[in-house]
Amino acid sequence: PLALGLYTVNAVYGDTITMPCRLEVPDGLMFGKWKYEMPNGSPVFIAFRSSTKKNVQYDDVPDYKDRLSLSENYTLSIKNARISDEKRFVCMLVTEDDVSEEPTIVKVFKQPSQPEILHQADFLETEKLQMLGECVARDSYPEGNVTWYKNGRVLQPVEEVVVINLQKTVNKSSGLFTMTSSLQYMPTKEDANAKFSCVVTYYGPSGQKTIQSEPVVFDVHYPTEKVTIQVLPRSSTIKEGDNITLKCSGNGNPPPQEFLFYIPGETEGIRSSDAYSMTDVRRNATGEYKCSLTDKSMMDSTTITVHYLDLQLTPSGEVTKQIGEALPVSCTISSSRNATVFWIKDNTRMQTSPSFSSLQYQDAGNYICATTLQEVEGLQKRKTLKLIVEGKPQIKMTKKTNTNKMSKTIVCHVEGFPKPAVQWTVTGSGSIINKAKETKYVNGKFSSKIVIAPEENVTLTCIAENQLERTVTSLNVSAISIPEYDEPEDRNDDNSEKVNDQAKLIVGIVVGLLLAALVAGVVYWLYVKKSKAASKHVDKDLGNIEENKKLEENNHKSET
């Protein structure tokens, strides 16, 4: 490389500078020497080498003590290159007749340290020009330049927005430069999370190069421009008994730490942190809620609906009624939305609501009126009615001779609740019969049955007794030798309703047949009456004929 037409050696700071003597060695060479020139042009000799004695001598120059080396071909090496080595060196070859000189320019380069952003601002505030930091790159030679970047783009100076000031200092002992670039910056809200960095541009032996600092992100403070209120937990519905929290937030940085909460029915705001909690909310908590900054600026609102569900069952609890009585039952609801009501009796869902105009034993049981709000999870209510239907014992006795003709079956059909206790006795003797068999007690009905083979006529008594009354009924039973049949015994009290239906059907058929027979009888009677009238006329006519015949016979006899 050439500088101003001269041969130039580029060296790296701290490395060895190697300068070949670019002269051809002439014949008759006596010695070779190296010198450098002072700024005022005066020479300073630093190295000598004889061509005949082959010895090397170095001049007593403090800056180059123990740093020089001169080879046989007169190449000069300088160890540990310094900035002060940037000089014009001259190689001299001397003969008896001539002195030849060839200059060499030495340039020394030093790469700066990686730049650092120092004295960083703790945070930046919008609409305010302030010192962001200083970019420092040390120990450079020659001096370099510093450029600021934001998000990878160059920051150009803008009055009152971007102010850059570059200072360069040199170390007098080393000759190295330190570049310090300060940046004053007025941020905007969009500068939150922006990456700031700086780049130093310097020259090295091979040309221009750059080194970049580590990026820095600053906390940008900006005022709140919007307040938002929300309800936690984030549920689509709120029901009575829930715990909720009103959360108020501002979009500033740092966010506001205190707010005013406005509760329905309250004229003044309640000062609180960013959260206001409400426990076990009731339906009267329904309404519009607001929050604002403590200076009452920037407000937001939300409407809360607390869903509720009330159920009233009349009557409820345990209710005892007498058989045949009426019992009006009502289940009413009050809710924030349409609710569904359904009834359950003894763990079985009913198709219709219960209605009792005349209570029967089968109406007794555990009733549940339940309701739920489909759209509100967990909101359901239920109330129970335990219905007890009581009745005094009712008795009906039947008898029949068994098919084997060896015994008779006497049945005492009993109704009542609580379940009556049944006792059999023989009237007259008063003896108690303990061999009765009972059917299952269902819907207030059951049967007690005994089998006997009386040798003579007896009267049996069935006694049914519960907490309400004692009922006694007797039945005369003939001796076993006299067959007798009473009303057929109910085969299964569980099928009593079916039997009743069948009885009704049979009665209907019988009534129909009787009506048909009556009509037929009337028709027949009319027919017979008409027939009798006609026969009377016939008999009369026949009588007249007979009488005439007798007269004729008498006349004939008299004539004879």
UniProtKB/TrEMBL annotation:
List the keywords (alphabetical): Adaptive immunity, Cell adhesion, Cell membrane, Cell projection, Disulfide bond, Glycoprotein, Immunity, Immunoglobulin domain, Membrane, Repeat, Transmembrane, Transmembrane helix
Gene3D superfamilies documented for this protein:
Immunoglobulins
User: Membrane topology per the record?
Assistant: Single-pass type I membrane protein
Report the transmembrane regions from the record: 505-527
Q: Which SUPFAM superfamilies match?
A: Immunoglobulin
Per UniProt, residues of the Ig-like domain are 103-212, 223-305, 324-386, 393-473
Which is one Gene Ontology cellular component term of this protein? Answer: axon
Instruction: Name the Gene Ontology biological process terms.
Output: adaptive immune response; cell adhesion
Which PROSITE patterns does the protein's record reference? IG_LIKE
Q: Where in the cell is it found?
A: Cell membrane; Cell projection, Axon; Cell projection, Dendrite
A Pfam family = Ig_2
Key word RNA-binding present in the record?
Answer: no
Would you tell me the protein name for this molecule? CD166 antigen
